[in-house]
Amino acid sequence: MWILDKDLWSEIFATLGKNLFRTFLTMLGVIIAMIILVLLLGGANGMSNGFQKIFAGTASNSLFIWSQSTSEPYKGFERGRRIQFKLEDATILKEQIEEIEVLAPRIELGSHRGIVTVYRNGLTSGSSVYGDYPNIDDIMKKKLVEGRFLNENDMEDFKKVCVIGEETYKLLFDKGENAIGEDVRINGVFFNIVGIYKPNQNINIDGENSVYIPFSTFQKAFGSGDRMGWMAISVKPDVKVPVVESQIKRLLKNKYDINPIDERAIGSFDLSEVFNNVTSFTTVLQGVSFFVGILTLLAGVIAISNILLITVKERTKEIGIRRALGATPRVVKRQIVLESIVITVFAGFVGFAIAVGFLAIANNMIGENSDMPFYNLIISIPQFIVSFVLMVGLSVLIGLIPANRAIRIKPIDALREE
């Protein structure tokens, strides 16, 4: 097989080794181009991973629904009527909209974002206090520092337990002091601390100065009855959140006699829209990075073609002798194309190794807990394979230019060259 021909490879390396400095300068363009390509792809992937990390622990296919005041008169009701959701609404929605996977009712002590004073041994913390179902953790995951989150037993037994944020702990306890099992007082009612959480450094809707208590206990302790403040909802996979959102609003508007065109009576926030926008942005960024990198690589490979054209000119007499001795145009063309491939592939591997080293250093500097929007800067295996296949393909195409120039040289003319 010709690819294993030792004489062929000896000739290739002998040719490239005649002028090592020029060969190095030829490879330098491809090395730099490959470094740029890998760094661009690694940076784009790192940003994508960073956004994935930001959304970690929060269901990306989720939305939040809350009640507001009407902005349109309807069925004898004037505008400005305050809508108050009931706990039964959660049951109705779950039963009638099969696309809903998790629905977690929630109520807050005081108005939205209201601050409640939490007491302990003369210390106070202005915190947000929520009555929650345990399944809220399936939508907005809490990273526990100590203890546990709310569970079904807490709900069924109306347990006066709570989970507090890390900031709440710092305001109510001395550093290093054990908080699990201790009591705090909220509006005159004592609650036993069973867990402490800290933000996941992601989309943190509640902040770190919040207190969670069982929804059933909230109802009993603070007399909220069947009122519900808002709902956190995640939909089933492959279901579009806006479709479910429209169904939910249509049902609730019908139940509470809200004008169908009233856009203010029911508030909502579609987290999936944010997630999809971010995903689209990172996908476009990866595509642009790959395109720019390939163009840079093409410029480096063109430089190889120019050098090989000079080499062909210098080797005119040698080529003429080989043709006179019976070398076919195919053999001559093959050698020059292989020279182009060897230079390109070797330079590409060198550039890739250098770029991966830079990415490793960057990953080490960024670390796990950095606030930078980058995480795990790395080039994927498919990207690596596609890059090298394109690089080899470009080297073959570019190598054909000097190769075709070489086979157009007539043996008799080449032998007359001085």
TrEMBL record:
UniProt xrefs under InterPro entries: ABC3_permease_C (IPR003838), MacB_PCD (IPR025857), Macrolide_Exporter_MacB (IPR050250)
Q: MacB-like periplasmic core domain: which residues?
A: 23-250
Classify the main location.
Answer: membrane
Its placement in the membrane is given as: Multi-pass membrane protein
Report the subcellular localization.
Cell membrane
So which domain of life are we looking at?
A: Bacteria
Which residues are listed as membrane-spanning? 20-44, 290-312, 336-362, 374-401
For this protein, the record's PANTHER family field holds:
ABC TRANSPORTER PERMEASE YTRF (PTHR30572:SF4), MEMBRANE COMPONENT OF TRANSPORTER-RELATED (PTHR30572)
Q: Does the keyword RNA-binding apply?
A: no
Family, similarity comment: Belongs to the ABC-4 integral membrane protein family.
Which key words are in the record? Cell membrane, Membrane, Transmembrane, Transmembrane helix
What is the name of the protein in this document? ABC transporter permease
Chain ranges of the ABC3 transporter permease C-terminal domain: 291-411
